[in-house]
């Protein structure tokens, strides 16, 4: 039998994983905004990064309320991914589509993480509502990147 404490700890751990992924996403979009040459696209990527920051802060607050200390740092995997984006950008001679393709790849990974968290069953209804809200934002970003890249 699972106790309330175990459920709370599992939820906090799941939320920390989501927070880490959102910090990764925020940092990735900030980097992408610096790499693109189109001012409008840079502004759009910065807006996504800002929204990811807002969500990160909301999730960190929930973790804190669960009695845990939120870690506001990204993952080592994402640092490697951002290094890859910089390298790919250099090799592709600052090709916007290369950056957008990496943004799409990151969104798909974030989508998988969110869906997995929703399926785990450790989260409280309040947590699930936030995830469902952000999942719709991620879905929109995926569709937008696919359209920009000419994918269906």
Automatic annotation (TrEMBL):
Gene3D superfamilies: 1.20.1260.10. It comes from the Bacteria. This is PA2169 family four-helix-bundle protein. Residues 12-119 form the DUF2383 domain. It comes from Luteolibacter pohnpeiensis.
């Amino acid at each position: 039998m699972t106790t309330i404490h175990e459920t709370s700890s599992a939820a906090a751990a799941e939320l920390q994983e989501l927070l880490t992924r959102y910090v990764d996403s925020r940092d990735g979009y900030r980097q992408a905004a610096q790499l693109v040459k189109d001012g409008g696209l840079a502004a759009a990527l910065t807006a996504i990064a800002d929204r990811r920051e807002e969500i990160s802060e909301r999730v960190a607050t929930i973790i804190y309320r669960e009695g845990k200390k939120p870690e506001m740092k990204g993952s080592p995997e994402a640092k490697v991914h951002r290094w890859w984006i910089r390298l790919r950008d250099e090799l592709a001679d600052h090709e916007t589509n290369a950056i957008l393709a990496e943004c799409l790849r990151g969104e798909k990974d974030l989508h998988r993480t969110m869906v997995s968290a929703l399926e785990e069953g450790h989260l409280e209804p309040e947590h699930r509502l936030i995830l469902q809200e952000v999942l719709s934002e991620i879905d929109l970003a995926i569709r937008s990147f696919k359209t920009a890249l000419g994918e269906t």
